[in-house]
Amino acid sequence: MRKKAKWIALVLACLMLASLAACAQQPKPAAEEKKPVILVFGRGADSDRLDPARTTSGESAKVTLNIFDTLVQFKPGSTEVEPALAEKYESSADGTEWTFYLRQGVKFHDGTPFNADAVLFSFQRQMDKNHKYYSEDMEYAEMTLGVVKEIVKVNDYTVKFILNHPFGPFLRNIAMFCNAIVSPAAMEKYGPDFFKNPVGTGPFKFVKWDRDSQIVLEANKEYWGGAPKVDQVIFRVIPENSVRLAELQTGNIHMMDGLDPNDIATVEKNPDLVLMKQPGLNINYLCFPCKLKPFSDVRVRQAISYAINKENIVNYLYKGAAVVATGPVPKTILDYNVPGYPYDPEKAKELLKQAGFPKGMKINLWCYPNPRAYNPVGAKLAEAVAADLEKVGITCTIQTMEWTSYLAQSKAEKGFDGPFFLGWMGDNGDVDNFLYALLSSDTIPGGNRARYSNPKVDELLLKAQQTTDEPTRADLYRQAVDLIVKDAPWVFLTHTQDMVVLRKGVTGFTQSPLTLFFLKDVAMPK
Q1: Which residues contact 200 (CB under 8 A, 6 or more apart)?
Q2: What angle do CA 425, 426, 429 make, to 5 degrees?
Q3: Is the CB of residue 273 less than 8 Å from the CB of residue 329?
Q4: Which of 162, 297, 361, 420 is in Cβ range 3.0-4.6 Å of 366 for a Cys bridge?
Q5: Mean of the pLDDT values across residues 309-313?
Q6: What pairing do the DSSP bridges indicate for beta strands 361-367 and 394-400?
Q7: Helix segments in 146-295, DSSP class H
């Protein structure tokens, strides 16, 4: 019995050791994998290029703002400028030299260092037509950097811009998305395809771009300004306003822009959604081909301006989410009560009679089909305007063209043969960005699609650029606005409200008066 008991004890001991050995060989249970926090932004259209210097598209800037940094940037919710990649800056007493002291220890997403050489590279490729990476499609370059005579590298972390003359808008121009700092090494690597493979120093890194579908970014955990609050941002293209809103209501996306005014009440009633809105820094206008008869006659342009009921457009088309424009600049950046052209069909008929059209006329009225940020109802605007013009004897044939072709045609030498709708979103909060960019003779056929030219206006705009005293600049701009309104190169229609809708619990987003979408501080509900 004792032998048998010993044998049983030995077997049990062996089994126990084998069990312990097996346990030791088993892998430890894996820690629960953390799901990435993903923010999905719904928008109406895709980007064109993700090279900040080679685009004027707001849909592109919406993305590049989060990949790249500028030397100085706009304060959240403001048009004021603050340091960014430059820790500080200073100007000479006469305003012709600007010195930027660069932040040290910053790296591009490809691991290469940010320094003075990168700054020089980023600006010289826009300014020097002989630069290896200069491109004719850098449309903002002349407007924002044309005044720069030279950029000097003082040392590895100090650069100096020398201007031809004092230039009031200079600092705000440097803060614009087009003047972002790019990785020279990435530009060398990708060449002309850099716009598909953007590399900056910003809070998010580019991951992939599925055309007309989505752009994916991931958080730059080592960002000099602090890591983003989400792991990924996906910009999804959802062209139809109603479909985009439905996706937001179901939680498939977390924020969106391009809200149809007809859906404002729906959003406001939904407890799961938050509507953010503010006065828009934009202008929505009907542009005349000013060199083409009969629109070369100012009386015809003024007649059409009087004939359109802008109040009705605001109240019925935009459901109050806009204000009537009486001039080319929003009052939020130029405090001036210009009278404009109130609705007066009898005055319109009288002016048409004086211009030789007592029985009215027939014209083509050109428009784009899809909603824009400054015109959220798209082609419905043309229908409303045509109905008003019919009442004063002007019969319109509405002609529609897809947006990309439409924009190219408005700039082409032949242009449109009748009035055409356009709009503008302010880039930097400076009046120069509206008046010089859109109505100076220097910007024909760039921003000045009306081909409007008035030497006195040109003189005032140049004087305002070369003045740094803000009250003096404002006075010069008011004089220019008076002349422009009298000349009526556009029908000044509306300034539309900016609207963004978020899912409840999405926090940290600050609406920008410049319609900029900085997403670093946006957090998702927990």
Answers
A1: 64, 67, 68, 69, 108, 109, 180, 181, 182, 183
A2: 160
A3: no
A4: 420
A5: 97
A6: parallel
A7: 170-174, 184-190, 241-250, 264-269
User: How high is the pLDDT of residue 31?
Assistant: 55
Secondary structure string (H, E, C) spanning 359-423: CCEEEEEEECCCCECCECCCCHHHHHHHHHHHCCCEEEEEEECCHHHHHHHHHCCCCCCCCEEEE
Beta bridge partners of 152: 160
- 444, 142 in Cβ contact below 8 A? no
Q: Which residues contact 380 (CB under 8 A, 6 or more apart)?
A: 317
Backbone angles phi, psi at 64, to 5 degrees: -65, -30
pLDDT of 58 reads 84
- Do residues 478 and 2 touch, judged by C-beta distance below 8 A? no
**Secondary structure of 64-120 in the HEC alphabet?**
HCCCCCCCEEECCCCCCEEECCEEEEEECCCCCEEEEEECCCCECCCCCECCHHHHH
What H or E segment, with its residue span, contains residue 158?
Answer: strand 158-163
Q: Is residue 27 predicted with pLDDT exceeding 60?
A: no
Report which residue type is found at 259.
Answer: L
Q: What is the tens place of the pLDDT at every residue in 76-96?
A: 999 999 999 999 999 999 999
- Tell me how far apart the alpha carbons of residues 200 and 190 are, in angstroms, rounded to a whole number: 13
Q: Which of 440, 401, 394, 403 is nearest to 423 (CA)?
A: 403
Contact 336, 345 (CB under 8 A): no
Can you state the angle between helices 455-465 and 470-487, rounded to 10 degrees?
Answer: 160
Q: Are 487 and 299 in contact (CB under 8 A)?
A: no
Q: How many whole angstroms separate alpha carbon 332 and alpha carbon 260? A: 23
β-strand 322-324 against 490-496: which pairing, if any?
Answer: antiparallel
345-354 vs 298-307: helix axis angle to the nearest 10? 160
How many Cβ atoms are within 10 Å of 87's Cβ, its own excluded? 13
Q: Which residues contact 47 (CB under 8 A, 6 or more apart)?
A: 55, 57, 59, 60, 62, 63, 209, 215, 235
Type of residue found at 341: Y
Rounded Cα distance between 388 and 384, Å, is: 7
Tokens representing 493 are 């229609």
